[in-house]
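Example S7 (structure tokens).
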């Protein structure tokens, strides 16, 4: 297996890219959740008036 180094490098790169993608999605989801919470709070204030 003379190409094992390339296979390992590709494996590591793919996993790193996948983890980075999951991290980015998680941050975006957290931002959306914050926005939803703000909207809910604003709606609750409007309903009280």
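Recovered sequence:
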């Amino acid at each position: 297996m003379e190409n094992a180094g390339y296979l390992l490098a590709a494996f590591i790169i793919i996993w790193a890219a996948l983890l980075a993608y999951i991290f980015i999605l998680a941050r975006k989801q957290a931002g959306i959740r914050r926005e939803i919470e703000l909207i809910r709070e604003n709606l609750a204030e409007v309903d009280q008036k």
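Notes on this example. The two ends are 73 Å apart (CA to CA).
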